[in-house]
Amino acid sequence: MTEAGFSKDVVQSLWQLVLGGLREQETINPASADPTLTRTERRRRREDNSWYHQAVEMLRENNGFATPKMALWSGGLDVCRYAQSKGYTPMEFTRAGKAFNELEYHRDWQLQGPLWNILSKFYVEQATGPVHIFLRTYDPDSVLMGREVPHLRQLQRINPDVELLWHPLYTTEHGQIMEISRNRELVDEAVFPTRDMCVAVLYEYLQYHHNERNARAARSYEEMHKELSKNIHGKSAQG
Which of 33, 175, 181, 199 is 20 to 30 A away from residue 42, measured at CA? Predict the structure, then answer.
């Protein structure tokens, strides 16, 4: 944290807040497992950790999330690194994200995970302009699609400058991440104004151009078929 430019006093305060948050999470998690609660209600309870919220607010006050070109991503950590290599700043490459990403606070991810969810929420709240979203896989239940993007939609109502720009990605057999154009070709950059256009291009490329011997893109291909299968079966069940 010191190497990231935070003062010694801020580091000490943050450390105490994180430790307090871990202890608090041990109490919160069992209560949030109530089977009578909806999935959304359980998530909200898991993230109702005042220690974590204070820690993230302190990071915000100390410019922990400042970024000139905000980026979100889905599909593996190398997608995060790809976005950064293109000149954008995912949360993991902000001052706060770099420091937090270096540490494993607890071996039980159930205690640490809510902190990262709160971090991501605070990160997207800093959006004041275009946000670039890089997709190698599309999962409607992911944190990106279930929480970050809806929160950005709310921000757009207040600030129309918060524009969402979508990049569909594919990994070649040689491990190179490329973007998929409207013509379903692999190019250096392809930006779409809507999620649906981006996802359609991603699905179609995987369906018609994916080489099944390309293990590097196997996960994206398998998840595409799983999602399409659910959609098809859902429509059949509805008649």
Answer: 199
